[in-house]
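Predict structure. Input: CST complex subunit CTC1, 1227 residues.
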Amino acid sequence: MERCLGDTNQAGSVRIPFPQEQAWLEAAQTFIHETLCPAGSDPDVQLTQSVIDCVKTTWLSQGKNQGFPLPLSYSFVSVQDLKTHQNLPCCSHLSWSSSAYQAWAQEAGPNGTPLPRERLLLLGTLTDLSGDLEQESRKGDLYVKDNTGVLICELIDLDLSWLGHLFLFPSWSYLPPARWNSSGEGHLELLSAPVPVCPSTTSPGPPSPLPVLYPETASRLLRHRGKLRGVQPNLAGKLVRVSALVRSQKKAHFVLSLGGGSSPAGSHVSIVVQIPAQLVWHRALWPGRSYVLTALRVVRIRGHCYRVWTTSPSSHLLPLKPECVRELELELDGPLLEADPAPLPTPSSSQDGDREPALIRHSTLLSYTGKVTGVLSQPAGLYEVDGQLALCLAYQQFHSLRKVVRPGVSLELQDVHLLQSVGGGTRRPVLAPCLHGAILLRGFSCQKPENQSFYQAQGASLFEQLVWERQLGLPLYLWATRALEELACKLCPHMLRHHQLLQHSSPGNPSLGLQLLAPVLDVLAPPGSTRRNAHKEILEEPHHCPLQKYTRLQTPCSFPTLTTLKEEGRCRAWAAFDPKTLLPLPESSHLTSCQLNQRVSWSWLSLLPATSHPAQILIGVLAASSHKGCLQLRDKSGSLPCLILAKHCQPITDSRFIGCLVRTEKFQLVIERNVRSNFPSYKELNMTGFIQKQQARVYIQFFLADALILPVPRPLLHSATSLTPQAEPTLPDGPHIEQSRLFLLSHKEALMKRNFCVPPGANPEVPKPILSFCVSGSWLGGTQRKEGTAWGPPEPKGDENKDQKVLLVFRGSSVRWFEFLHPGYVYRLVAPGPPTPLLFEEGGPSCIPQRALELAGCASCLTVQDEWTLELESGPDFPAGPDTSKALPKTSLDDLLSGNSSDSLVSFSAEILSRTLCDPLPAPFWAKPGGTRTSRASVKLTVAVEAADCQSRPHLDIYIKEPHLPPPLGLLPGARVYFSQLEKKISRCHNIYCCFRPSTYLQVLSFPPETTISAPLPHIFLAELLQGGRAPFQASASCHIVSVFSLQLLWVCAHCTSLCPQGRCTRQGSTCPTQTSVSQASIRLLVEDGTAEAVVTCRNHHVATALGLCPSEWTSLLESVRGPGKVALQFTGPGAQPESSAKVDEPLTLFLRTLCTSFSVLRPVVLSFELERKPSTVTPLEPPRLQRFQCGELTLLTRVNPKIRLSCLSIQEPKHPSSLGAFSLSC
Ligand SMILES: [Zn+2]
Ligand SMILES: [Zn+2]
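Output follows.
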């Protein structure tokens, strides 16, 4: 034995092996017996010797063998060993010197890592059988097989005669499956031709020349019937094309085309290969070489009119040796087939072409050889070739290539489509092979595959679905793959697992990713288009496939991350911020510094998705914050607060939306801007230096009804909601143990910081106010226990007559339920865990001051524990929503506007007209650095109260002060809001206003309209204003200025509003920082329109219009007042002498007096106005008074209506003065 295995040196004498060699040889012997000899047989000495000889020859062939006749540093490796122990990619090159390996490794380039070299000896049988099963398991793949197993392999130039023989593989790479993919299989890349262990005797050629047909004859033969009965001719020719290997569920096939060397280019013949044992030919075929295919027959393809050549089970593929063949003589003058397939129906006929819109582009069909330089997306089959082209393999079935293709791989692409400027965000030209052309491997990569993370490999089957089921064209496919990757980056893995987003879509289990894209894809590529037909795509001439024509894609939409959205919104809001636009001239020129800064201090902007290109689509997971109590959309980048309405006027009540994926194209991105500034006057408004601080609050408003809501599979729910994992109760496996109780919510209080007593046993530190809210309601029935999946019957209550009213306190993380609780709805309070008696009965550890309980009229209160949950209860007994008429109790308009303060809590719906920040002036806030100002500021909302029975919408001011600041989301001009339990107050001038209080509940009913259409004010007769609260609050009237009551023009210090004669502030001990003064003006006019009279007050720039002065006249009038600082005129009545603060005979006074009594002032006008006083004093109308008039000797007593007091909004000259005639009285 030893002799057998020993080495015969060059001299021919036997050398005794060294102990090392001895050990190596023994190991080899064992390995060969176990791994390569037929199982259960005795050691095969001859085989063993052949293997060792083969190894030695190969080893010595590298030249530098380090003085050893045996590769002692190499060890044998079986297929099983590779599979189980080789967890890292590696390569082994028995025949290579280290310098050869170095040179090869250099190809990896600076960015790639070459495969590490292991010293392993691999032997095995090359086969196309994956297992012991026959035929059926042949799919055209190639394997290396030994006694321990099989391993799929790739080989560049296969010789079919190698199949079934034992080989030594001198140079190979092994790539194990990705670490996460435990079920995956590794594969082998055989870098050089295998070395046969037992050199096969070269089979002699056929004894006599083989009769063959050449392509031209063969293709003519297809058109003759009956000539070939019983004959299976052989075909010879040069291989001009190989199609892709097409695998369907039933069978696999490919098509090869042979052409004649001298025959015209068009004359080639296609041969369909679909016998499983012949599929492996696909790896052996090399375009440009000549072959003979034996024993062919003609078949008609089902569903097609043409006939093709196909192989029979006894067919062989042989290299063409001209000396071994002779042309078969055939007489071909028989009749042609009736259905001559030659003039094939051309689907893309010229008529078709004429109708095509000009936007349709045609791809170029070409052949390309290049090297893969990058992986753009492996699951989507997208690669970079030669640094500048994209390669999309998705339109072929490229499963086997997916493993091999990586940077460094050389490919030959035959008949590949080149698509240029496909749009949709893809810039480079794209090479995309369809089934017609083959992707031929021309060189393996020396690079280690990039450490592919689990998620990078996800989605392959979804991407396939996009091409093969949704039939997306290439531009849209590229966009969709990128969009899906973008979505994965946005959401995975925190919100969703990659496999959840990118899973294959099946009818019962649709892919989340596809659902998110579907609305866009449905528009651009409506589903249900025809499926691809492989036969047609490969065989039909002219060629027809999905890659042939395309249109440039306009990027349909983008899915910005929430952080991007927030930042973009913020940037756009500040870019659009311009105090001069917020305060246009001439209004701003009359404002004092304080008024200016107040008006600049709050503003808002709403951005609509349609205003960005491409349109933005909002995607996030809905969460309820347990810290802030607000709703949020979250993605991996961050979160955005949001205000959500289920639909118009309907709040969000169903807490099951928590954790759902939300997608909407209709939303408003709201940016509220808070600015602290110290502009001295309007002249400095464009100087940004006066802005001291700016802050923006960004949030989103949308209707759930406009959104796509996708539930996320359960196990992840907790990570998507605001619940911290600790707070999530650890539920035992099996049925959940829970108990619950129903309650009807009657009132909800504001979410704010409140003080609570320390529960016994808790940290006895000084309690800090904590964010909390309470709801009051009543229990509906007793506690119920979970029985299976349903709730059991309610437990009988201890005392049926006991008051069922309850106050529920939400604090800590249970504030997350705030946005879901609304009056009028029935909720189920669910407590997990084993049944606890009286769990929902008693006060528990919470401690509400007794007075609060009394106020709420509740007998008991209960603190909602962190782990408890709330569900909206809807069913036949409890309709999902409250009866809208009952739901929102409203104070009647009369009660609301009455001066009677007995009922100080009021509720109403209103539209917000304006929102301003006001602070307790006059302390100059810039004198006091620090945040004192913000703490004392309050927000004033001016609202138009909606009353069902009346078109007039009285205006009210609502003040929001600490601790209700910042105000809740959505209190924006234009929004409609329901306010409940506001505190009504009456000012010293008998105006009614409201204030927020802790019990205030508010519900936004609708968002500000996306486009503001300013409806013209109603045109009325003044007498209509005497009809009490039924008249509109703002209106316009055509009337006549009868007389001027008073006129005042003054210059005040812009800072302290003291009078400024000669432009100097007169304030005692003035320390005003600037000597800027602003003009202010007011005029009181008597107007009438034939139905009633009204006193109108016009201020500032409206005075100019009232006086009929043009801007330059107005400016010079104001300038002339600057000297005295003030001019005030009082007119006691029509025709009466004016009383003036200035001397009567001063020219200025004289001028004004003349002006105010001239027809240029006393004239017909169109007046827009609002009621001067807030409704409180208007509604309880004073009755007409009896007034005494002296008319000569006579004293007349007549009823006079009280004068209506109006504020001027604008004055316009009448368009048709004559039309006023009917109502205007001549003066
Ligand atoms: Zn094609
Ligand atoms: Zn001053």
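The pocket of zinc ion (ligand 2) is lined by residues 1053, 1055-1056, 1058, 1065, 1067, 1070, 1072 (CB under 6 Å).
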